[in-house]
Design brief:
36% of the residues lie in helices and 23% in strands. It is α/β, with parallel strands linked by helices. It starts with a strand and ends in a 5-residue tail after the last helix.
Amino acid sequence: MPAKIIVVTAAYGHAQIEALGGQLALLPIVAEAGADGVEIRRELLNEEALKHLPSLASAIDLHNLQACYSAPEALFQEDGTLNPRLPALLLEAQALKALWLKVSLGHFTQHSHLETLRGWLAASPVPLVVENDQTSCGKLAPMLRFNAACHTLALPVSLTFDTGNWLWVGEQPEEAARQLAPAVSYIHVKAAVAHGDGFRAVPPDAADSRWLALLKDLPADVPRGIEFPLEGEDLTDVTRHYVNLLREEAPYA
């Protein structure tokens, strides 16, 4: 089976999503484009929408899509303690029938907190995936330390590998792929090009071949999320183009 293709709702841009009527309005677009699933972003849900996650889950089911859930929160707080909101976020992900909950790493320093994390995860049917973000906490060294600790303690935590975010923190994505690939269960696909003092995300076919080549260094059978800008007059056609592109670049496992 080829890798599943997930469309990250944020790829359509906050203004466009609001104009369309929220993430619910994107489901027909994502489904008609042939994607396998949709990544729902917590930061795009208002308080009322958070009260109706089971209804959103039902709508996702009706469109024959799978859901995953992303929260703009770190697993570890600045003082190194676990984010106390994680159990609540796991409950939200469960209400959404999400395949996993995605968070960033944050300030991981102490292994002692990982047994508490084990207990929280044991109480939830939703797996946890941790992503490299665009902060110093998302650099390769802390991601490696955290991954090694999870491996040593046999914690049921895997990684989301964002192909573009490494550039924001001054890392080489190819080296990160070489060292982290065995722990990766989800890939956020985006290319990044220089822009001012930093970078901006672009579709992988709007940049050089580096970004599509990078996928060959990562697991072939894990889901791939579209997290680069999806723009155009016909959003379904634009989305379909990139769903097909990522499928073509996904060898059969």
